[in-house]
Amino acid sequence: MLSMTHEAKALLEKALSLPENERAELASNLIASLDTNVDPDTDTAWQEEVARRAREVSSGKVTTVSWDQVQRKARTLLHGQ
After folding, report:
1. What pTM does this model have?
2. What is the CA radius of gyration of the chain?
């Protein structure tokens, strides 16, 4: 943050005071503004991937796990607990 201008620091401070959902939307838009080399096939590929995964869940080929289980496993992997 040392290389940020006074204006950028002020904007960051103001942004951090926003509600979480608005900060997330703002962050998403800022990141998207940096991505100037967009592959036109990316959206199609992601849509196909989402559809494939949905079919696998619907057919019973794969099963889902709860968010609590995911968090527990992540904590175990990160902290060895």
Report:
1. 0.46
2. 19
